[in-house]
Amino acid sequence: MKYISTRGQVSPIGFIDAILMGLADDGGLLVPQHIPQVSEATLQKWQELSYPELALEIFSLYVNDEIPRADLKKLVDDSYATFRDEAVTPVRKLDDSRYILELFHGPTFAFKDVALQFLGNLYSYVSAKTNSVIHILGATSGDTGASAIEGVRGKEGIRICILHPHQKVSKVQELQMTTINDANVLNLAVEGTFDDCQRIIKDLFADVDFKVKYHLRAINSINIARILAQTVYYFYAYFQLAKQGHSGKVSFSVPTGNFGDIFAGYLAKKMGLSVDKLVLATNENNILARFVSEGVYEPGAFRGTHSPSMDIQVASNFERYLFYLYGEDPQTVTQLMAQFKADSRIVVTGDALKQVQADFAAYSVGNEECLDTISEYYQKYGYLLDPHTACGAAASDKLAAEGETAIVLSTAHPAKFDEAIRLRSISQTYPEQIQQLFDKPQFVTVVGGTNEEIKNRLVSFF
Ligand SMILES: Cc1ncc(COP(=O)(O)O)c(C=O)c1O
Ligand SMILES: N[C@@H](CCOP(=O)(O)O)C(=O)O
Fold first, then answer.
1. Catalytic site residue 243?
2. pLDDT by residue (tens digit) across 314-334?
3. Which residues carry this modification: N6-(pyridoxal phosphate)lysine (predicted)?
């Protein structure tokens, strides 16, 4: 398996080079040259596997023999041994048409751990094998940062710098990142939004001389490893439903911001999983929902919402989708992305728009609707949703009303977003790992956020 860029200017590279390259050197995003097709017989066999066994099978399709199978197995086993639930990503049934896929049983209580425990271990493995340093630069609206730091803190040969928007993440998210005092961790709080943080890191990764000189590596979902690792739980969830007696296609409702998680579902479907609808649930930052309904991809005004990790305007994985939408044609993608840079707008019409609407259903969930959904699910099912999952649940309710079964991806534990939960007078007990964060000192530097300032900070840190 080789990896190519959505913009066509990178010669095909292997798995490890693709992981190390992060953002493609031509400014595009790396994708597999061919999407492996999984037969019905293989799907039947996979149904019996544990989560780590399934992850090993799926990763093997993308890694080829670049990592010996025994080493890959150890990486996978180590990565999922840190999860608190034996099933790693269990599915809970609420009623005949509603299931919750709990992705928050990893060390930082968010779905990011599923991919970042693995990527942290993979970076460590590559660093040791090639005797090279790994300098991670990431942007976060709260969850990726905490999870990536947890994945590599204290690891030999690795340093990590995370940018987050100052005072725009939840208290628990902030504490998870900034109470870490390992020498290989640097937290910068940028005066701005997550989009500012993401733009800065993309600019720095696009400066190939700087990237190569300082060995910059990505942990955001621009890194294809993130997407591949996130496909696994779509398969695993489907198999869990099948074991519970459900047959046929299943829809997934996905709380969406950067379009990474739902793109992983899109990839799982392309690999052969029987996915019915992929439901894209946004909060009031609804650029993607507007795109699906109108074909216009254009940032709106930033809204601070109860689901701050999805307060994202420019979705970094959108380019990967455009690549497939336009028949894997890098010229069209390059042209569309140039147009977006110039006009902050992409318009999709005709058959392409029909295809978008066949690929996704989309709903934008307002702030009050998000809180209402938390209250309703708590009262009706005794199940406490975090506000991001609540957006997914609100969207899935529309499907349930049409008699369809949906699995809602639960992307975070409610304890991470108590600010929203308290607004509905629901009290929760924090898990011990979260409670103890409140007694720790914080280590963070607030920065203005010009590219130059961040570059200087990185040069002194690395
Ligand atoms: C809790 C939570 N839910 C949902 C999302 C949206 O996922 P994605 O950015 O992959 O669309 C994020 C951020 O990535 C998140 O942190
Ligand atoms: N919501 C994310 C934003 C970054 O997304 P990523 O999937 O590209 O890492 C966060 O919590 O940081």
1. no
2. 999 999 999 999 999 999 999
3. 112
Catalytic residue among 112, 168, 202, 211: 112
- Is the minimum distance from the CB of 220 to ligand 2 under 6 angstroms? yes
Nearest ligand to the CA of 256 is 1
What is the set of domains in the chain, with CATH numbers? 91-109+225-422 (3.40.50.1100)
76 Cα: distance to centroid of ligand 1 (angstroms): 22
**pLDDT tens digits, 335-361:** 999 999 999 999 999 999 999 999 999
Specify whether the CB–CB gap between 367 and 283 falls below 8 A.
Answer: yes
Global pTM value: 0.97
Cβ–ligand 2 distance for 195 under 6 Å, the answer: no
- Protein residue with least CA distance to atom 13, ligand 1: 309
Report the 10 Å Cβ neighbour count for 443: 14
CA distance 374 to 388: 10
Angle at alpha carbon of residue 151, lines to 128 and 234, rounded to 5°: 110
Give the integer Cα–Cα distance in Å for 375 and 71. 46
Tell me the C-alpha distance between 189 and 128, whole Å: 31
Which pair of tokens denotes residue 177? 């990142």
Q: 50 with 73: CB under 8 angstroms?
A: no
